[in-house]
Amino acid sequence: MTVTTTVQAPHRLYGRGTQRRAVAALLERLRTDSAVLVVTGEPGLGRTALLDHAARTFDGGRVLAVRADPALARTSCAAVYALCRAAAAVAAESGAAVGAAGAPARPVRALLDALACAAVDAPLLVCVDDAHRWDAASRAALGSAARQLHRAGRIGLLIGVAGHRAAERDLAGLPVTGLHPLAPADAGALLDDVTGGGVDPAVREELLDEAEGNPALLLALIRRLGPAELTAERPLPRPLADAATLSGVAGDALRGLTPAATDLLLTAAAALRESDEVSVDADLVLRAVHHLQPTASTPRDLLPDVVGRAEGGPRCAASGPSEAPGPAEGGLRFAASAPPEPLSDALGPADGGLRCAASAPPEPLGPADGGSWFAVPGAPESLPDAVGLADGRFRFVGRLVRRAVYAGAPPERRRAVHRALARVLAADGQRLPALLHRAWATSGPAPLVAAELSRAAADPAVPAPQWLRALAHGRAAQLTADGARRAASCTAAAEQALHAGRPRWALRLLDDAGYGTAPAAVRGRAELVRGLAERYDGPVADARESLLSAAALLTPTAPALATTAALTAADAAWAAGDAGACLEALDAAGRTPDLASEYGYGMRAVLQGRFDLAAAPLRRVVADTPVDGEPEALLRPAVAALLLGDMSAAVRAGARALAAARAHGSDALVPRALEYLAYAELRAGRHALARTHAEDGLRAAQRTGQRNTAAHHHAVLALAASIEGEGTVVTRHVTAALGTARRHGLVQAATLAHWAAARADLGRGRPLEAADRLGPLVRPGPRRGHFAVWMLAVPCFVEAAALAGRPDDTQGVLADLAVWASLGADPQAPAQLARCRALLAPPEQADALYQRALDLHEHAVGDFERARTQLLYGKWLRRRRRLREARDRLGAALAGFDHCGAGVWAEQTRQELRANGAAPSGTGGGALSRLTPQQWRIAQCVAEGATNREVARTLSVSTRTVDYHLRNVFAVLGVRSRVELARLVEQSEKTGAQP
User: Fold this and answer.
1) Which pLDDT score is estimated for 815?
2) Rounded to whole angstroms, how far apart are CA atoms 577 and 813?
3) Is the pLDDT score of 89 beyond 80?
4) Which architecture, in CATH terms, is 2-178?
5) Which burial class, exposed, middle or buried, applies to 881 when counting CB atoms under 10 A from its CB (0-12, 13-18, 19+)?
6) Rounded CA separation 973/45 (Å)
7) Are strands 124-129 and 155-161 parallel, antiparallel or unpaired?
C-alpha cells in the first residue's frame, strides 16, 4: 500500500457536479461529525481524480490518502493493518498519543482506534482508493469500521471501488455516489483544454464518439495521435481505440484471468458487440461457452461451483441463512442462471432445489440485485470488477471493460466465440442475430453469407430492432465485393441507423460505401439519408442541398420519396431562416394531389404572406391526416396547426405524432415530435407543460445525437425560464442554443434564444438591455431575426422601448404588428397590438386602449399575456394617482402571474403593489423596514448596479426624483456608498426581511 499525506497540484474536474456536491457535503459534515461516502464507477471515469479533489479541497484538518498495494492482497487483513500503521504515523506527526505496541487488536477495533488517535485534535479525511483490490478480510473490516465511524471522532471516509458489486457485502448500506460517463459538453471541454482547441472538428467529433464519455480513454486516444492526425493532415489509425489503448485504461480489471474466465468474458462481450447494452442473458453465454469447450459435458465442467436453480433462481446450500455476496478468498464470484445441460453427479436435490454434493459447501451466498453470485475457485479476485449477475443476466460494470475484453482477444478466438453464439441463437430461432454472428465469424468476402444476411435484415417479418438491422446491413456490405451491392447495403444500413436515432453512425456508413457504380435510385436514397442526418446534426444549409439532390435523383423511380426529400429540404431552409430557399424546395416537391402537396401549397402561401390562401390547404392537412399514419407524416399537421394559430390542434397533432414515433420505434422522430408539442404549449401560454416537453425532448435529442433539435429545445427552455424568473437557467439554455445555432446556421433557434434573453431582462426590470437586444431582431435590416419568429417578439420590444424612454425606436414595427394581427395566425396578437398602442399613446387615449386589450385577451387562452397587460395598466394608473383602480389591476396581474408560475413577473407586480401602498410591510427588516415602498424599489435597483438614470427609466420617474429618494435612503440606513447599500439589500433578500 502506497501512502501519502500530501496532495498534488490542483487539477480541474470536468462535470461531476453531483459527485462534487456529495463530497462537499461530507467535508462540511466533518466540522461536527463523522461521514462516509463510497465512490463507484468503471475504470477511467475518475474515481481517483474525485478522491484527489476531495483531498486538495479539504482545509479543515488532516488528510490520509491510501491506494491498494497488490502485494498485500494475498495476506488476510494485511491491507487494514497497513492503514492502521499509516494512521498511527499521522497521529505521531501531530503529537497525538499512540497506544503502546503489543498484540494486534482485532482489525475493526484496531482501525477505529488508529483513526481516533489521528483525529484526536482535528478532523481527519481518509481517502481509500481501489478498495476492491484489498483482501476480503480487510474489505470486511473497512466496511464494519465505516458503520461505526461515529465512535472514533470527526473522521471522513471516502472509499473508491471499481464497481459497487465488487464489495457489495462489505460496503452494503453505506452512502454511494456513482460516476457515469461525461456529458458531451464536458468531454468536449476536456478535449479542448488538453489540446488547446486545435483539433480538426471532424477528428474532434470522432474522438468524443470513440471515448463514449470516459475521460481516461479520451486522454489515451489523444496521446495516441500525433499533431498531423489531430489536425486531419494524416488519416486516423483504425481502429481508433485499439486493444492496447482499451486495456491500458481498463487496468487491473482484466489481468490474470484463467482461460475459462477469459472465455466467459469474451463470450459475454461478443454477444453484446456493437450494442449499447452492458448486460446479456447468462444462459445464452453459458451455452455458448459450452460449445467452445466440447470436452466439457456439463456446466459443472465449465464452472465447477456453479449451482442449480431453486425456487426460480440459483442458490447454494448452506447451514445458515445466506449473506450478501462478496469475493471469495482465492476465487471469484460469478453469476449464473439455470444450467443449460443436465446437472452432473456433483449436484443433487435439496428441498426441491439443487445443492453442491461437496462436503464443504462454498461460502454462503445470497442475492445481488435480484440474482445470485457463485464462486469459481482458481479464478482471479479482480473479475467481479468486470462482470456480475442481476436477474439472470451477466452485466459488465461498463462499456469500456466490455470493449477491452473483446478487442484484446485473438481474432481466431473471437471468430470461434461468434460461431458458438450463432449455433445457440439459431437453435433458439433467433434468425437475424444468429446470421449476424455467423457473418462476424467469417473473414474475407462472402457473397452468399452477405446476401442471406441482407435478406433477413430487410424482411419485416423477422423481428429485430432498427439498430440490429443496421448492423446486419453494414456487415453484409463488408462481406460484399461488388461495388453496387456494397453501396446498396451501406445505404440500407444508414437508413436503419438513422431511424434508430444514430445520425453520426449513418453518416459514417455512407462515407464507407463508395457510390461510383451505384444506380441513381441508390444514390438518391443515400443523399436522402445524408440530408436527414445533417438536418438533425449538421449545418442545415448542407442538409438542404443534399435533400434537393436526393429529390432530383429519386423523382423518376420513387416520386413519394422525392416529395419527402423536397419537403424536408424546405424544413431545413425554414430552420435557416432562408425564405427564398424554402420556396425553391417547395417547388421541387411537385404538385401531386395529396396531403403532402396540400402541405406544400399552404407553406408556400405562408412564405408569400398570403394567409388567406394558406388557411384552406393547411386546415385540410390538419383534418385529413390519418390517425394511424407514419410518424413523419403525422408531424405535418402539427406544423400546419402552428402556422394556423390553432394551438389546441397543434397539441393534439404533436401528441399523436409522439405516440406514433414511440410505437414504431422511430427514435429519431421522438425529439422532433416533442419539439412541436413544446412550441404549441408555449404559444398557448402553458409554459410549465412546454418546459416538461422540452426537457423530455432535450434528453431524447442528446441521446440520439440530434444537436440541432437539442438547440430548439434549449431555446424553448430558455423562453419558459424567462417567464418563471430563473436567470441562471435562462443564461445556460440561451448559451447552449446559440452555441449550436451559430455553428449550424439555425436562425430560428437563435432568434428564439435572443428573445428569451431579452424577456428575462424585461422581467428583471431592465428595459434598456431588453430593447438593445431585441431591436436588431425586429427592425428591418440584415440582422433581423427569423421570418416566422421576429413578429412574436415585437410586443416585448415595444414594451422595452417604451419603458426605456425610447418610443421612437418602435416606428415601423407597430405597423408590421398590425398586419400580423389581422392575419389571424396568432390568437394573442390583437390584444398585444392594443397593449403596444396603449404604451405609446397619449394619456387621453391610453386608458381606452388598455381596456380594449383586456377585452381582446378574453378571446385568447393564456394567463401570462393577460397578466402582463394588467401589470402595465396598473403601472399606468398608479402614475396618474388612480390608486384604487391600480390596486385592482395589479392584484389581478399578480393572481395571473402566480397562476402560470411567472415568478419574476409576480415579484415585479408585488413591488408595484408596495409602491402603491397596497402591500403590507414585512416585519423584522431592521433599518430597511423604515424605507417607503418607492425608496425600497430604488434601493433594489441600485443594489443591482443600475445608475440613477437607469433607475429612472425602469421606474418611469425623473432622474431628479431618483436622486432625491436615494439621498434619503442613505440617510435612513446610515450607509455611505452604493456598495454598503448593496450588501444590506442582499442580506435582507436572503433572510426574507424586506419592507
Assistant:
1) 87
2) 19
3) yes
4) 3-Layer(aba) Sandwich (3.40)
5) exposed
6) 53
7) parallel
